[in-house]
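Field reference: sequence -> structure
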Amino acid sequence: MSEKTYLLLMAVVLGGLGVFVWKTRTPSVANAAILAPPSTLAKWPLTGATTQSGSRGVTHLSTRDADGTDIDVIEFDFKANPKLKLELFDQDSDDKAPFDNSARYWGRNAAYVLAHESNERGPLIATCNGGPFDFDRSKSVDDAHHVAPLVVAGKPHFQNLTSDENQWWVFGVRDGNEPRFETVLHPSEAQLQQFDYATGGVQCLIKDGEKLHLDDPPTNKRWGRIKPPGLGDVGTLGRADWTKTSRVSLGWNRDGSKLWMLSVHDPEAESVSRVALSLRFREQADASTPPIAGGWSVRDVQDFWKSQGAWGAVLMASGDFAQLAHRRADGQVDFVPSHVATLFWKTAAGRARLVCAPSLKGAPTGGSALFYWTVRETK
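Structure field:
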């Protein structure tokens, strides 16, 4: 046996022994007791919420939890205002090489899109994250690409991607005489073509008025396990599901006459909760471990929509890129910037909900998503 072969064999043996010892010393018990308690505001109606009317058929509710979490819900009533339309804006649709699955995305955050994609078809009323995306760190953090299919103006794109996100739910809208919202798992090309706008890679939380199955909190033997969804199942993203962090979600009623955008803005970065959660799962927490506070878990979001009575609900985005912008009746913009944007912004106010002039003067720039769900008031 050569020295190289011997060393390789010993590395495998010792590595396997280390895993065995770690597993035998780590109890396999559920960790529900060490998770942060459910958010007290993850229910309907929102406690202490203020209500503002925007454009016809648009209502904005907002409140703040004791831990600093900002919660915004925007209701769109399509019967009260049939001119309201849910659309998808993709930054890869209008660059030098449209839909080549590569786009410089950083500069156009939700507020920027709200202001600059309002055009002759009508003003945008609200924008929020469109779904998951990624970027090639070997090139530039400003070079983003899609990881799941989407449909823009009736045309599917990126439906053959070999990514984990391509195994998750697709949410879409069909806009005939009135909007119809639908979630589909593993849609065919023909099913995608039925949508006017759609995006994949999302977690479906509520379907036909009922909660889909969400796995119990992970044990410390399987704290990082990821499992794609099946029918009747949300799917599991491991500790990410139980991290208290920022979230963006959409919900709708049974006949499609109402849509709600939900924004949950954690005052701290996602990493704070993730580290605290990981230490507890590994039984390495001590007095210096930060508490798990601020933001919502996936179950919090699901509980909120069930309490609210939504017929369907999907989770669009989680963590430091979550963001929301909304045009008020007076023309000013309510903006919940991503935490990533605040890292490059000079004032601490970036951690809270902002009210900006229509010109967006003084608003944070960057910290963008690759694509956005938008609601437009058509002319």
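Note: Residues 36-377 form one domain.
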